[in-house]
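[step 3/7] inverse_fold.run input=structure_tokens len=191
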């Protein structure tokens, strides 16, 4: 057997009809999970590109966090990912201020942060959009194209099966369920 993400895999763990060699099984398991990215010790994001390659669904989890969020950076950003170098990062976050349990979106272009109830913050109301700050989970779907100037295009490799390719910023607060300064719990990852 082999171990992948803390799980012991055996040939029986492979799909029927697949090569049941353990090395192949481990390789298949690793390849199948390329859409899930561990952002840090508490936070993960899974992205799924729609079959027609027009939308991406993000499933974000933050274990033991207060509020948490992820941001789609402007294409070509190489520094200051939180704000896309001042051009604005398209941030979607989950906090306890939305009574309907829905994610919120804000274009962040300065280090001033996001204030609860900010007039330029929008609530996402798609059929799969959900935010549960107590459980540390958020799911939202969005078009890969920017629908207006508050959104950034999600760069997608449509030439093959590699899917989404962009820098994602992320942040969370260790305890506060209300959006506030992230207290250093932040970073970025290539998705």
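[step 3/7] decode complete -> sequence:
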């Amino acid at each position: 057997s082999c171990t992948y993400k803390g799980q012991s895999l055996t040939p029986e763990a492979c799909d029927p009809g697949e090569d049941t060699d353990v090395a192949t099984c481990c390789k298949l398991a690793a390849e199948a999970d390329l859409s899930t990215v561990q952002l840090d010790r508490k936070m993960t994001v899974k992205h799924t590109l729609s079959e027609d390659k027009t939308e991406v669904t993000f499933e974000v989890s933050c274990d033991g966090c207060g509020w948490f969020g992820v941001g789609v950076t402007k294409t070509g950003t190489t520094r200051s990912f939180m704000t896309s170098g001042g051009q604005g990062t398209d941030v979607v976050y989950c906090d306890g201020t939305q009574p309907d349990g829905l994610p919120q979106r804000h274009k962040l272009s300065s280090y001033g942060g996001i204030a609860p109830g900010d007039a330029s913050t929008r609530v996402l109301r798609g059929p799969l959009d959900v935010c549960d700050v107590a459980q540390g989970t958020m799911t939202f779907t969005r078009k890969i194209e920017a629908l207006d100037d508050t959104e950034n295009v999600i760069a997608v490799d449509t030439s093959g099966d590699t899917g989404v390719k962009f820098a994602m910023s992320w942040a969370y607060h260790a305890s506060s369920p209300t959006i506030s300064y992230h207290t250093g719990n932040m970073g970025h990852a290539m998705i």
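[step 4/7] annotate
Residues 90 and 107 are 5 Å apart (CA to CA).
DSSP finds one helix and 15 strands in the chain.
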